[in-house]
Predict the structure.
Amino acid sequence: MTNFDDQLWSYLVIEHGADRVSAAPPTAARRRQRPLLASAGAAGLAAIAAGIVIALTATSATPPAFAVTNNHDGTATVTLRQISAIGALNARLAALGIRAKAVPVRADCRAKDQVLLGYSHWKTSLDYKVTVGNRWLDPGYTAIMAVKQTPSGVEATFAAVPTRLAPDCVPDKLLPPPRPGS
Amino acid sequence: MDALPRIADRSARARSSEFEGIYRAHVAVVTAFFARRCAEPQTVADLTSETFVKAIDSFHTFEVHKGSPRAWLFGIARHVYADHCAAAAHGRHATNRLAAHLTVDDDAIEQLADKIDKQRAGRRLIERWAGLPERDRLAIELVDLVGLSPKEAAAALQTSPGALRVRLSRARARLRKGALKP
């Protein structure tokens, strides 16, 4: 297939469930849903500073490892359920021109500590979803989503870092502890 | 053909594989269909995307013994193009209407531009056929340019094979007479 064919197929799979067509008519759950933005509170404001808005939505019965919804306003809503999909997720964000990058949290990561200061929000969710957009980022900065797979879902930490210093991983020791009830 | 199991009875996995197979086999001809009509690569991308999104949503109604996948897709594509023209005629920006606006990278845009260029001869033919009624024009395009059988083209145009053959014969006769030369 050509590059266009590949990109279109990825789009159809990610945003329209082309890999999950069935004999039944498409349900509301399978159709794309607009997220409800929940940006109030200190945690939300901190996330916005990192170029990210936390969003909460209902989920479908058989979710994909990740999904990216182009919101057509320069932002995209990202859902990540399996961190094995980081590579594909980053490729999709790059194709959309959004300066955001998901990186794994690893105990053996040797990224420079000073780059990783300022992580400002911690969220644990079975259906981890955020909205990212360049409009919330200073020029020359990239939103880093440090993600870790746990038995209960994907844990994520966000920060905006200078693009030229954006790490490929985040050391586990630098992450703040989960907030109670998060 | 009646001995074939109804697609609706097949497993979801088989249906998904079937849809991907149909996509891979036909995305090029559907893209070419729009490339003969539009000079803008992004418009071609959006209309092709819209066609396959509608195909996903209506795949549960598609049964192979009622028509070929190619005829089914061209039936959708002609409606997508008609809607696009109607939106343009009413002064609405077509991409605002599309539910399947696709963001593609520069390489894909270049590939689409190349495809548009390669469809130049087909586009000139369509322009020469401007004096034909639209359904006659589509009939001759689907059969003589795309390569559908008259039965497939009839399914795409939602008419009977007999009526399509009449349209085809009439259109060819008019073209032979040169009545439609510019």
